[in-house]
Automatic annotation (TrEMBL):
Its EC number is 7.1.1.-. The gene is nuoN. This is NADH-quinone oxidoreductase subunit N. Belongs to the complex I subunit 2 family. It catalyses: a quinone + NADH + 5 H(+)(in) = a quinol + NAD(+) + 4 H(+)(out). It is a multi-pass membrane protein. NDH-1 shuttles electrons from NADH, via FMN and iron-sulfur (Fe-S) centers, to quinones in the respiratory chain. The immediate electron acceptor for the enzyme in this species is believed to be a menaquinone. Couples the redox reaction to proton translocation (for every two electrons transferred, four hydrogen ions are translocated across the cytoplasmic membrane), and thus conserves the redox energy in a proton gradient. It comes from the Bacteria. Signal peptide: none annotated. InterPro entries: NADH-Q_OxRdtase_suN/2 (IPR010096), ND/Mrp_TM (IPR001750). NDH-1 is composed of 14 different subunits. Subunits NuoA, H, J, K, L, M, N constitute the membrane sector of the complex. The chain crosses the membrane at residues 6-26, 38-61, 89-107, 119-136, 142-162, 174-195, 244-269, 281-305, 311-331, 340-360, 372-393, 414-438, 450-470, 496-518. It is found in: Cell membrane; Endomembrane system; Membrane.
Amino acid sequence: MTQTIDYFAIAPPLVLALVAGLVLLLDAFLPRSSSLRTALGLVSLAGVVVAFGFVIAQAFAGRTLRTFCVPGDLAGQGPALCSFVVDRFTLVLAGLALVAGAIVVLLSMTELAGGGIPVGEWYFLLLCTLVGATTLPASRDLIMLVVALELVSLPVFALTALKRYDGRASEAAVKLFLVSVVSTAIMLFGVSLLYGMSGTVHLSRLGEALGATVTAGAQGTAGAQGIAGSAYFSTLDIATDLPMVVTVGVVLVVAGFAFKIAAVPFHAWAGDVYQGAPIPVAALLSVVSKAAGFAGLILVLLSALHAQAPTWSPMIAVVSALTMTVGNLLAMRQRSAVRLLAWSSVAQSGYILAPLAVLTEAGQRGPAAGASVAYLVFYAAMNLGAFAVVMLVSRSDPRNELDDYRGMVFRRPAAALALAFSLICLAGLPPGLAGLFAKVVVFREIVNGGLGWLAVVMAINTVIGLYYYVAWTARLFTPTVEPSGDAQLRGGRPTAVWVAVGATFVVALLFSVAPQLVLGMATL
């Protein structure tokens, strides 16, 4: 069999992969200099922009793109099964990953200016992460899903370790590596169980087969004949063992994704890894890796495991409540800006998870996924804005503690106002209406879904979050008589970081003024 490939469908990850190879070649053959570091950054940025242009072109194509398909006659029955599908869900999350990737490239250009980090390897690994992040939301079989998720994860701990002779970076890389290995092992075990129960790797067929498994479990051994032809089923008591094995597989897959998005109780790595990693990598973890993790989780839960919703829905609700609560309580105790953003990111994961706990019709991503994706888009703009200003401050105050921001509005008013707006957005207070709209969308979905107790937990956590966001914002406007590092160090202007600050501020402001841009886009 010869499969045809739709190169237009795979254009965004293909462009990123080609540019990643080009960056390595340029780094190997061009003479090392400061201009080379700038050139490689611009080449990487251009690659991300071109890939985003293809995403826009796919959106205007007005049709769902499919490739890597198995014809219906070879699949055995029904329509063709495709491993790579570009639909509205794919376009939104791939576009989000690429825009966030462009901001991370801008932050990286400043991070690499000192010359202590290998530039070619850095941009190569960063682009590989973006290849995985744009491939994952289009993945429609378990094999491609796992490979894309690992392509997002593996380069990140290498990026963390590239800051050589830094003990904290090495420690963060080891912790991230161990977390990645454990989460992958857990997920693969769960995936193997689901494949063994269904006999297929394609998500749509997996949903049908596991739905039949649920029916068989209710009907007893008489219902087993249509599930699979494997002799393995003859060793099981269909009424009891089969549903139990599927339940274990579901729990393991959800646990694997929970590691990736730093959900409680798999969150302990976040604070140390964010603080030890270079700030662009922390920003990458907080947005791109998180978006990829949620994309995979949404696809698996709502496309493949919808028949098991009574099993995983209560679990997601409890994990969501614990994640937002623990994240907010830990963030209240922080004095480091990066650690505060790390635990804030954990709390935000809880808010994004909440709508997924609402039961939906079989195979329909609809309102639940739409609410989570909308919150994810709002959150990305706000959080990247905060990280951009933190990157700016880190150039003069390496400790980057909250007290270093005291009186910042009198020294760097533009950066201080941009940070204040991002923090107010994250808190959900006017004039940062982007965060308020994000929380309203999630709150409305869980209330309509009958999860009143989760809505109460979310409301309480929103109030808790106000404390540390407002406390940090207040420091920006508090006068100080002590000289500050960023008033004394007047080196070259970090132009790339200022571009990132300006871009994220404009996007967050636009989302606050016209939230329908996100709300309409995230209607899946």
